[in-house]
Structures are given as C-alpha cells and as structure tokens.
C-alpha cells in the first residue's frame, strides 16, 4: 500500500484514491473537498464563515482554519473584506493544469509499466467498471470521483509518492476547471479512454500508452468551453446533509 501522511495523499485502498490528511478538522475539510470535487460546490461559490460554522456546528475559528487549508491547495481563494469562495481558474490556468498533468503523467509511464502487477491491473479494471456504471446511472459525482481515482491510482503504481501527491492535487484543480469550462455532459474523463489505456498498460506498450494518454488530455482541453456563466449561491445545509449520508472518499 502506498500512503502519505502529510499534505494531499493518494493511497491504494483497493479501488479508491484519497486526498485527505489527518487533523482535528478533517471532517469539515474532507466534506468541503468532496463537495468541490463532485461539483456540488461550484467555482465562485461564496463560503461565508458564519453559514459554514452553523452548518457544521463549530466555531468560525475552526471554519477559518479549514478555509486556509483549502486555500493552500488552491481550491479556495480568500480576499480581504470579500471572504472566501471556491476558486475559479482562469483560461490560462485551466490550460496549464492539463499541460502539467500531461507532462508529469506521461513521463512517469515507463515507471508505471515497470512496477505494474496483475493486482494493480485488477484494481484499475474495477475502477473503470465502476466509472462506466456511474456514467450509465448518470451519477455525475461518482463519475468525477472515479475519473480522478483512475489517474491517481495509475500513477501510484510507480511508487513515487512525491509525484503521486502532485498528481492528486492536480486532479482536484482539474475538477475545478471542468466545473467552470466543461460541457454539460462532461463528467470527469471519457471512461472508454481509460479502458483503452488499461489495454495498453496490460500490453506494456510504453510508446502507445504515452501517446494515448497525451491525446486523452488534449481531448479534454479541446472540449472545454470558455463562455460559462455565473453560479447561484450554494445551499450548505442541503449539500452537506447529503454528504453526511454518503461514504467518504
């Protein structure tokens, strides 16, 4: 099992990636990250301390700590006298996030292939199967989560914890990009691409795998739409009541 205890993490837990750290504010932090990743808290959504404190039953000081942590991983922006809101990446940042992912993830593929075992392949196939089911069920939140999990777990195979941590953080920022600029049908990645990537991984075809992954990122960027409108204010009580009843990542 690959694990990280400081900062964002990507841990082999059979099928899931987790981005979270151990701290007394974990429940709130994890709930907010999950809501952002799953597009239930959209970019630009205001995050007033008082409303969040009431929702989670904690002090504003506790909420402030969590918002500072989210700002540190660039999921939240904090402006003087304007408070906190979910980050809204600009067009250049959106393109750079995926360019960086393409460089990192493609460059690491030879190490992924070198360390890949049958157990890894079976776990990845399970992620793809669940992702395909999420698309059939039109479960956008699950599709987004599983799409990110596929990429993080693929890179985790190589055993480079530093790189895997970087990729896990970039998948969070990718979710923001897709929330702002994605097409209405764009829920994570196209799962048939992930199936094709697994076929090439099993064949240990490094060149074809890198080419396919590179085109995968290019296709995501090509489908972004840079003319999205503003979002309505979030209903925290509704969002986090649903979160509390579901399994955590």
TrEMBL record:
The lineage of its organism: Bacteria, Pseudomonadati, Pseudomonadota, Gammaproteobacteria, Enterobacterales. Residues 22-89 form the HTH gntR-type domain. It comes from Serratia grimesii. Keywords: DNA-binding, Transcription, Transcription regulation. The keyword DNA-binding applies. It comes from the Bacteria. InterPro entries: GntR_C, TF_FadR/GntR_C, Tscrpt_reg_HTH_GntR, WH-like_DNA-bd_sf, WH_DNA-bd_sf. The keyword Transcription regulation applies. This is GntR family transcriptional regulator.
